[in-house]
Amino acid sequence: MNMSRTPRVPPEVMARKVGDEIVILDLSSGNYFGLNPVGARIWELINEGHSLEHVCEALLAEYDVSREVMESDLARLMEELMDRGLLAEG
Amino acid sequence: MIGAGTGELPASFLQHDPRPQAGIAEPPFQIWTTPTGAVWTLFYRQASGYLVRFPALADFGISVDGIQIHGWAAPGISSATLQHLYLNQVLPLALSRQGKLVVHGSAVAVSANALAFIGASGKGKSTLAASFAISGTRFLSDDGLQLEWVNGELTAIPSHPSIRLWEDSREALVNDSNDVAPALEFTSKARLLAGTGLAYCRDARPLGRIYILGPGAAARPVIALAKPSTALTELLRNSFLLDIDVQDMLAQHFDTLSRIASLPIHYHLDFPRRYDVLAQVRTAIIHHSREPAA
């Protein structure tokens, strides 16, 4: 995964934090998607305009997990959100 | 014109003489199908608003603002069927076009509050509401539950005073003292009218709990706190929305549901779908609703 990328949230996608999780709604399709607390934190960092490299470093500082696992999980989530059209390339 | 609400009329409905369902050149923008895959409802955009078609049953025209509704039964279809489709399918959609929130949910009045039961068709919303109503706990709605913020309080609004039940539920729950509306062409569900045997609440009530109905896998009544994100996705899944392509309305709808999902009132409720445990289920719900919110 290219960690220098900075994904962006498309204008037709909105998200709301409820509790410690986030639900994302694609206004163009009406489809929605839920993120657990870690996914929600990733979404917040991306929404603030950070690169994946910055997101990964921030998460490594916040969670007790290896860089290898974090990068793998981050890559998987990015792929899913991109495939669903909930994130776009910056 | 007939109105569906018990207070001020939420929309006007003009019932016309039956007419054949003419072909429509433009493709529908949305199609609803039954669990067996049959086409149930077709949605078309027209210059004057929307045309909602129930094939071989009825056409409805809804104004862009959702306030004016016209209905035409197909030839040979009864007025009762037209009005039933209006109350249970078309009016909730029209209200959503007015920016109101309507969910697939039944509701009953316990103490000063309303308790709502949400879930897809077949999850037991109506049976549960009928069970309460027959035992003397008044119901506000058997489906198409309208929710409104009133003075900062989420409030359940009563809908039409009837409950639809499948034949097995009707046989298990209902006795001769219940009034039953005329049979309809498209369903074997009976419509029970509120009356002496079916207690109805015509007053809006603050919403105390929303119970998300489970699949019926539990061996006994089980109530567990639902996460706000689960509440939000369930509310999204169980909302009436006429036109999801109107993005500003969908965004407003999402905001409203997010606010509701953040309230500490959402619980999962599951219980075995057996009539002999309904009394136990009612007791568990009433007891739970009187506990402090999570």
The helix/strand series of chain B, from N terminus to C terminus, equals EEEEEEHEEEHEEEEHEEEEHHEH
Distance between the termini of chain B: 45 Å
Mean pLDDT of chain A: 93
Number of helices of chain A: 3
**Mean of pLDDT of chain B:** 89
Outline of this structure?
Chain A has three helices and three strands. Chain A has helices at 37-47, 52-62, 67-83; strands at 13-18, 21-26, 32-35.
How does the SSE layout of this entry go?
The complex is a heterodimer of chains A (90) and B (294).
Chain A: E1 13-18, E2 21-26, E3 32-35, H1 37-47, H2 52-62, H3 67-83
Antiparallel strand pairs in A: 1-2, 2-3
Chain B: E1 12-15, E2 30-33, E3 39-46, E4 49-54, E5 58-63, E6 68-73, H1 79-97, E7 101-103, E8 105-110, E9 113-118, H2 125-134, E10 139-141, E11 145-150, E12 153-157, E13 162-165, H3 167-173, E14 179-180, E15 190-193, E16 205-213, E17 222-225, H4 228-237, H5 247-261, E18 266-270, H6 278-289
Plain-language structure description:
With 90 residues, chain A is an alpha+beta fold. The longest helix of chain A is centred in the last third of the chain and has 17 residues. In chain A, helix 1 packs across helix 2. Helices cover 43% and strands 18% of the residues of chain A. The N terminus of chain B is likely disordered.
State the main characteristics.
heterodimer, A: 90 residues, alpha+beta, three-stranded antiparallel sheet, 3 helices, 43% helix, globular, B: 294 residues, nine-stranded mixed sheet, 18 strands, 25% helix, disordered N terminus
